[in-house]
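Known limitations

Structure tokens in this collection are predictions and should be treated as such. Users comparing against experimental data should check residue numbering before alignment. To illustrate the layout, the record for Cytochrome c is reproduced below. The input appears on top and the generated tokens appear beneath it.
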Amino acid sequence: MNKLRLLAIVGCLLMSGELYAEADFDFEELMNDVETKIQNVQNNIAAADAASAGQETQELLEAFKRVEGYFAKRGDAEDAVQNSKDYQAMAGKILQALQAQDLATAGEAANEFSKQCRGACHDKYKPL
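Generated tokens:
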């Protein structure tokens, strides 16, 4: 299953209310926070504020660790676990570039992360 399906599943579970009962956190709140954080990361990179971008990116990585843990515990969702790991890897690429003070590469990686989120969740599956 690809990232589009993971976020579609999350959306369906959110709408059904099942996810709230099983997760130790609010998925909708977490995903809204992810959206805000990736925008902040992009803005901070554009402003050459690598420290703030790095902090927000670390928080993105931690958010997707929680998502991974949720789906791993739930079981029968290996694809969702893998997609969560993929987002963690994308956040890791941003962090590596920021640590190297390579803002151009960090910006490209942050833009790719944002495209994946927007294309998968907001443009196709997020309810209006």
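For this record: Confidence is low (pLDDT under 50) at residues 14-21, 121-128. The first helix runs from residue 3 to 16. Please report discrepancies through the issue tracker.
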